[in-house]
Specification:
Blueprint (H helix, E strand, L loop, with lengths): L10 H16 L1 E7 L3 E3 L8 E6 L3 H13 L21 H25 L17 H17 L4 H14 L16
Parallel strand pairs: 1-3
Antiparallel strand pairs: 2-3
Length: 184
Amino acid sequence: MVFYSDEILNIQSIADVFKELFEGSENTILQWGAAEPIYLPSDASCSYNRVVARDDYFSSGLHELAHWCIAGAKRRRLVDYGYWYYPDGRDEEQQRLFEQVEIKPQAVEWILSQACGLRFNVSADNLHGETGDVCHFKDKVFEQVDTYLSNALPERAELLTRALAKHYGRERYLYPQFFLREAI
């Protein structure tokens, strides 16, 4: 199975696919160039919602889109979906809380990555803090991917996955046998 590097993939391509799918129906676009990723709902200064990724970093875009795909209508009216966020340097308890809310987004991100041909890596996102046993977190992400593939993805995640897979010619890689626990 062929994978591409983050540097080869162009974030503008996922922005274009996302825009075609959701600009009209959800008034939402993907932007990049931020020092830190953020979701910004429409307000008095901007008439549309923005999923903002870091710099020109493809996997950051996929991760932020994964959060958007699973956020409900109420959360999509709040800056960063109303989530709390402890920055890098979390202690062990804060890290466990972070991991609990990251299981589903990272599972969706893995599926989106597979649709684009990008190798996925689980992210503990805590370079200057306690990560503890990341294996447990990886297991939970893998289990969630299996659940999504066996049952169903959230509707917006399904639409985006199918559109990206079609764009990158990777429809045949969206089956459970292509998602290996050892790969993450």
